[in-house]
Fold this sequence. Notes:
The protein has helices at residues 3-33, 55-65, 69-73, 80-114, 119-144, 156-181, 191-216, 243-248, 251-276, 283-288, 291-308, 320-345. It folds into 2 domains: 1-181, no CATH class; 185-353, no CATH class. The chain is an all-alpha fold. Helix 5 runs antiparallel to helix 6 (156-181), helix 6 packs antiparallel against helix 7 (191-216) and helix 7 packs antiparallel against helix 12. It is built from 12 helices and no strands. 69% of the residues lie in helices and 0% in strands. The chain is flat and about 60 Å long. The longest helix is centred in the first third of the chain and has 35 residues, at 80-114.
Amino acid sequence: MHAERSSKIVANWVFLGVAMLVIQVLLGGITRLTGSGLSITEWKPIMGAIPPLSETEWQQAFSKYQQIAQYKYLNHHFTLSDFKFIFFWEWFHRLWARTIGVVFLIPFIYFMMKRYIRRWMVMPLVILFILGGLQGLIGWIMVKSGLNDENLYVNHIRLAIHFVSAMVLIAYALVFGLMLSIPQENRVADASLKKNTIAITALLVIQLFYGAFMAGMKGAGVAPTWPDINGVMMPVQFFSGNIINDLFFNIINIHFIHRTLAYIIFVLIILWWLKARKYSYSPSFNKAKNLPLIFVFVQVVLGILSILNSPKIILGHFGIFEWFAQLHQLTGMLLLLSLISVIYLLCFKKNTV
């Protein structure tokens, strides 16, 4: 098969994987928002694909859930029917991950046999497979932090690591797909703009960490006001003398940092766009340069709406806050991926062929 056509087929396969990974992260968000993440207390990579099939098996699974703090102190009113609801979302989240593995492995073997995959493509694809496996392991380490008699939820730092590592996996797959589909002549030469884009992306990664902290600590509701934070612009005792606690465990501080980083990134992307819009000769860059501006605007608006609707949270109910929070997470992911795409388009290194 012609090299250009085979590259396009492989690129479409990789982009399908990117889409499936984005859905996987969104399913993780639904799992968290419905309080489902601790419903499955075991990690069985193979046999875990099969849910309980009999009433006895359901009772056994429910009995294991009843041993942890989340049931004892938060969901002790749950019936078996309630448990089946949260079990479904965690099971489906894990099943989708397994499906991604199948969608990766089977076409990989087929493409290797048909020689669609050239020698230089093999190592990036192996790395993708390894990153995917590690992501599953990180997810289980996160879940284990809540399977005890003390914690109602998973550790927020482990949740953040799980989320950001998923974004690393998605970003890596995206770049590989772009390598296969974007011609060299469609890329732009501007080292200064590239450095600015990398700096904004690094700041956004920090912001995503704090967004995950907010999610893990249920931080939206601690200050359901805007533009002030419970009547002030900055927490009164932001600095307590314990830097680790101030930056990583104090929920009102985390809320403030998350908001502040959002404003900074919003302004920086506007300034970045004003500089980037002068380039018009690259069709790919023409499309990509507007996406960060669109996504950051939508992201800020959804963040504000999530905060203002946080008093409407009802445990076990997926309402207006949960919808805004889920869309807020999605646009944050798309913002990061749009910046990663721009960085790639601003790189000059030629693809290996």
